[in-house]
Specification:
Number of strands: 0
Strand content: under 5%
Radius of gyration: 33 Å
Distance between the termini: 100 Å
């Protein structure tokens, strides 16, 4: 068995069609994928905003309770 390149390529038909260039992939669902990504981005932004608002509310509540404890301990 010969392992020369010419021998291996003897049965392979000539390739043509893209002039030796790498073909660019096509994505038929690109629009659908982009809209889903946009929706995901919107959802992520909303969730981050809700979590940030909750964090601010918790910090304010902790500050208010700490102040109340300090006033209680003074008097």
């Amino acid at each position: 068995m010969s392992s020369k390149l010419e021998d291996l390529l003897a049965g392979v038909p000539a390739q043509n069609g893209n002039n030796g260039e790498v073909p660019s992939p096509t994505f038929p669902d690109l629009k659908a994928s982009a809209s889903r990504q946009t929706q995901l981005d919107k959802t992520t932004a909303i969730v981050k905003q809700v979590l940030d608002d909750e964090q601010v509310a918790r910090a304010e509540e902790r500050r208010r309770l700490k102040e109340a404890r300090e006033n209680r301990d003074k008097g």
